[in-house]
Amino acid sequence: MKPLRFLLLALGALALSPVLLAPAALHARAAPAKDWTRTVTRTAEGAHVLGNPAAKHRLVEYVSYTCPHCAHFVAEGTGPLKSGWIARGTLAVEVRNLVRDRFDMTAALLARCGGAARFFGNHEALFANQDAWLDKARAYKPALPANASQAAAMADIADRTGLFALMEKRGVTPAQGRACLADAAALEQVLAMTRRAVEQDGVQGTPSFLVDGKLTQAHDWAGLRPLLPATPN
CA-to-CA distance for 164 and 158, rounded, in angstroms? Predict the structure, then answer.
């Protein structure tokens, strides 16, 4: 009986061995990889950043909401950027405005409604529905008096082009939208980004892209894709 008892004790010790348990235990304790597509931050200048704010690489997108080429880029590039780069934390995307007209400014201010967490959803919705509200913008004729405030003028645009209705589907009421359009600090941030685009970054049109601080010659997803850092295996 002694040899059998010894064998059973030895087998029990092996079964509890940390060497044998280590792979399974480590696997069970391993934390899931962080999905950086859910992380949104704002820069000191008021631009919005999607992804790991400390990522090794950064893509800056200068966009205009009245730019059809920007809408095409967002439709084609957003999915691949999120799954191929942003989710892994290797690259963050920073969106900056280069406003071209009063409709663009109205949309830019409404995109910021609801705080940073809602920005990219608003941003994508404005581009996804661009054809519908731009059609109304082309037919828009101001009905306000010449001395109407800038905020009132933009509210009239938002009302009559369907931007308020679009934002309401995003959880932003018209009253909240009017408050965003009257936000003087937000207006100045958007104008400052526009000035920076032209005066400092050398941007001449939208969409334009900076990769790790360097202005590229790409203006669409096909041109930008080869300029991005290699994705990890």
Answer: 5
DSSP H or E stretch at residue 50: strand 48-50
d(CA 144, CA 1) in angstroms, rounded, equals 102
Both tokens of residue 56? 């090794």
| Tokens 């950064």, located at residue | 58
pTM of the model: 0.85
From CA 60, how far away is CA 191, in angstroms rounded?
Answer: 17
**Does residue 3 have a cis bond before it (omega within 30 degrees)?**
no
What is the tens place of the pLDDT at every residue in 86-140?
Answer: 999 999 999 999 999 999 999 999 999 999 999 999 999 999 999 999 999 999 9
Residue 11: its pLDDT value, please? 36
Gap between the Cα atoms of 122 and 113, Å rounded? 8
Quick: pLDDT tens for 178-207.
999 999 999 999 999 999 999 999 999 999
C-alpha 200/C-alpha 98 separation (Å) is: 13
For the beta carbon of residue 171, count every other beta carbon within 10 angstroms: 12
CA distances from 15 to 28, 45, 49, 75, 231 (A): 18, 59, 50, 54, 41
Half-sphere exposure in the Cβ direction for 218 (13 Å, CA): 20
- The CA–CA distances, whole Å, from 172 to 27, 39, 70, 169, 189 equal 43, 21, 23, 7, 21
What's the CA gap between 216 and 233, in Å, rounded?
A: 25
